[in-house]
Write a structure and sequence with these properties.
Helix content is about 75%, strand content about 10%. By secondary structure, the chain is mainly α. GO terms for molecular function: hydrolase activity; proton-transporting ATPase activity, rotational mechanism.
Length: about 270
């Protein structure tokens, strides 16, 4: 993996260790949330794909029926049906509006068809019944084409949502893979590096304390030896003054007395 063996350049301190652990916890939670989001989007993606397949399968039959209805209307009403219908139309009664649907934080565009009541009232279906030999067939053609438009609007909504979900799933999966294979391994390697450096610093401090203790112990022993020598020199000087002998003779006399006391004790 690209994140394995890599780490962030940080100062190995206890504070930075806490920061890296907090970032690792955040990355773990973010990875779990993004994974759930990806799963939810994938479920919705598959549902939309099934709807697209079923809608396309039904669209062929509906488009065939609308085309055949138009042919029947032309045959029944004559060649001038197009001009007569266009003259009777003022505004579209079937309209399309868009809205947004939120799925796991992704806004999917939705298209809906609806009938404009004002336009429908201004041009009632009964207005075309006066056409010679073709009023009923024109109405049947109109209904067939309305069904075709409804299917096309639904298919456009599904395909737009399909493309939006596909891009969102790719982006989410890239983030999931980045967190799983790059960010989290780098944070874990950084935490292990900081722990290793802190352990090494702790061992260095322990060794330093041992060296300091040894130095202090030797210094105390040296001071005790110096104090003992000073006491012996002072005592030898007093003996030398009392008995009128030299310092070496006084030292020898003190040493002989000390050895005699040891022999008496043993």
């Amino acid at each position: 993996m690209s994140g394995q063996g890599q780490r962030l350049t940080v100062v190995p301190t206890v504070t930075m260790l806490g920061v890296m652990k907090a970032r690792l916890v955040g990355a773990t939670r973010g990875h779990a949330l993004l994974k759930k989001k990806s799963d939810a989007l994938t479920v919705q993606f598959r549902q939309i794909l099934k709807k697209i397949v079923s809608t396309k399968e039904s669209m062929g039959e509906i488009m065939r029926a609308s085309s055949f209805a138009l042919t029947e209307a032309k045959y029944a009403a004559g060649d001038n049906i197009k001009h007569i219908v266009l003259e009777s139309v003022r505004s579209a009664s079937l309209r399309v509006r868009s809205r947004q649907e939120n799925v796991a934080g992704v806004k999917l565009p939705k298209f809906e068809h609806f009938t404009d009541s004002a336009a429908a009232d201004s041009k009632s279906p009964s207005d075309l019944t006066g056409l010679a030999r073709g009023g009923q067939q024109v109405q049947a053609c109109r209904i067939a084409h309305i069904k075709a438009i409804e299917v096309l609007v639904e298919l456009a909504s599904l395909q737009t949502s399909f493309l939006t979900l596909d891009e969102a799933i790719k982006t989410t999966n890239r983030r999931v893979n980045a967190l799983e294979n790059v960010i989290k391994p780098r944070l874990e390697n950084t935490i292990n590096y900081i722990k290793g450096e802190l352990d090494e610093l702790e061992r260095e401090d322990f060794f330093r304390l041992k060296k300091i203790q040894g130095y202090k112990k030797r210094e105390i022993e040296r001071q005790m030896v110096a104090a003992k020598q000073y006491a012996e020199e002072k005592l030898a000087g007093e003996v030398s003054l009392q008995k009128g002998i030299s310092m070496n003779a006084a030292h020898n006399l003190l040493v002989a007395g000390a050895e005699k006391d040891e022999d008496i004790i043993f």
